[in-house]
Amino acid sequence: MLGLMQDWPLTVDKIIDHAKNWHGHREVVSRSVEGPIVRTTYAEMHGRSKRVSNALLAWGVKPGDRIATLAWNTGRHMEAWYGIMGIGAVCHTLNPRLFPEQLIYIINHAEDRMIFVDLTFVPLLEAILPHCPSVKKVIVMTDEWTMPATKLPAAECYEQVLSEASEDVTWGGFDEQTACGLCYTSGTTGNPKGVLYSHRSNFIHTLLGLQTTVLGATPNEVILPVVPMFHANAWGIAFGGPAAGSKLVLPGAKMDGESIYELIVSEGVTFSAAVPTVWQGLLTHLRDNKLQIPTVKRVLIGGSAVPESLIRAFHDEFGIEVLQGWGMTETSPIGTLSNLPPELAALPYDEQMKWRVKQGTPPLGVELKLKDYDGNEIPHDGHSYGRLMIKGPTISGAYFKDEGGSILDDEGFFDTGDVSTIDEQGFMQITDRAKDVIKSGGEWISSIEIENIAVGHPKVELAAVIGAAHPKWDERPVLLIKLKPGESENKQEHLDFLQGKIAKWWTPDDVVFVDDIPLGATGKIDKKGLREQMKDYRLPGAG
Ligand code: ADP
């Protein structure tokens, strides 16, 4: 027997409709790409998104057409999103930090018809578009008076287009399974692959994100998503903010410590989300200038493992709770969060740290499993490690154009490519990405765990651990360190710092001081780039 409730397709236009109807005056504040702070509201944004839709329809855009954005987090970018998605077209967020060849590959693979671009990236587009025949129009997201002279084909000025378009358009009315957003994984192995979100998956992900253990967004929160909209949908905040009626503060092109601090103070930010490297930058700025950010209660840190030193610094020096999140583009991206249950939260703070550094437990809507390489399930004992498998309505079932073939196991779980443990409390901990794990004498060494301890040394700015070939053990860990400015090199003190915190046989065979540690397109340490940089390195005594 079926239930008798209404069929109300879960399409994301309903999110911005809701924001306009019930939180219409709530502000969205952006640091514009042109410089000044720009204020709008959900009601205004709703009308402007409708104008975007009308312009697209007038240009002949059809449901399913891919319309790309190459832009920072701003109100305009959000309007373009909702305008594209509302008429059943697919919003393809391009990551401007990718190499030009990767962008060309992705645009051609997606067959993008049009691109909404920020002023910053006009020169980049001018260089790559001759190689992207599918792109017929470019909309530069700026005002008439800042519109650059450009050789881009059919370049339109966003504000002029909007001023000429009407707000009269009907959104939605299609199947909730209709494609809505497209985001390519950075392709650390092989070519980038397209993750194709549906209206339904984004809507459910929004509800999932509104759980108190996730974003916990309310109209009382002022949310600053530093994590870019092109990095797995700003972790859902561009949907969750309007859904909850939270004020949004969007940082535009400036994500350095000083600029983020200014926005936090001027807008009264209560909650923010970013990768660890951004937080490290803010922390340095706060410390160097003896500043506090008392309005901020919680920060969400994810995208790579959060070092204990960062969790402690926010807690001890600024009274801010760090919530660690794990996820990936394929998981929309929310997978797990490090909320401590009451039994663990009651422990002394130092003892809580064992769990705070873990990636945590899934919210309702996400299923997790650990499997070994033969497909057997692995016990949740906190030390047996295996492949982390994930399932749910917000998890990829296949890649765009079936790239990579079938990606689910026979129970419908997706293999994340992460190696992890799950403990008796259900806390998942990432040991490594499968391709970064160091294989030494038939056992595995977690590069992440060593890095997270090493970066806590007061002289260290960034630390990374990679495996180097070893004649007897196959691979041994090498610790690469970028020192803070003015600090002196002393290998032994970094090895001593690890003693007692990791198993003795995990101790790196060497410490190498480097001028820089490359960061990838989503602000994480680029292990592939690092291995390339170190390809001629030989362990002492390894010939
Ligand atoms: P990219 O490869 O572009 O960074 P994703 O953002 O999809 O793409 O990266 C997802 C991967 O990032 C995960 O599979 C995992 O390896 C890593 N990751 C994300 N969050 C965490 C975290 N809190 N701790 C450790 N690793 C993380």
Structure description:
With 543 residues, this protein is an alpha/beta fold. The chain contains 16 helices and 24 strands. The strands form five sheets. An eight-stranded mixed beta sheet has the order 2-1-11-10-12-13-14-15, with helices on both faces. Strands 7-6-5-3-4-8-9 form a seven-stranded mixed beta sheet, with helices on both faces. The protein has a four-stranded antiparallel beta sheet with strand order 16-17-18-19. Helix 1 (13-23) packs parallel to helix 8 (237-244), helix 2 crosses helix 3 (75-86) and helix 7 (199-209) packs across helix 8. The chain is globular. The protein binds adenosine-5'-diphosphate. Adenosine-5'-diphosphate binds at residues 185-186, 188, 232, 302-305, 324-329, 359, 416-418, 430, 433, 522, 524. Residues 185-186, 188, 232, 302-305, 324-329, 359, 416-418, 430, 433, 522, 524 line the site of adenosine-5'-diphosphate.
Topology:
Layout (H helix, E strand, L loop, with lengths): L12 H11 L3 E5 L5 E5 H17 L7 E5 L4 H12 L3 E4 L6 H11 L3 E4 L4 H7 L8 E4 L14 E3 H7 L14 E6 L9 E5 H11 L12 E4 L11 H8 L2 E4 L6 H11 L3 E4 L1 H13 L9 E5 L5 H11 L2 E7 L6 E4 L4 H4 L3 H8 L10 E5 L14 E6 L22 E9 L5 E6 L4 E3 L2 E3 L1 H8 L5 E11 L3 E10 L7 H8 L11 E4 L13 H7 L10
Parallel strand pairs: 1-11, 3-4, 3-5, 4-8, 5-6, 6-7, 10-11, 10-12, 12-13, 13-14, 23-24
Antiparallel strand pairs: 1-2, 8-9, 14-15, 16-17, 17-18, 18-19, 20-21, 22-23
Helix pairs in contact: 1-2, 1-8, 2-3, 2-6, 7-8, 9-10
Bound molecules: adenosine-5'-diphosphate.
Adenosine-5'-diphosphate binds next to strand 14, strand 18 and strand 19.
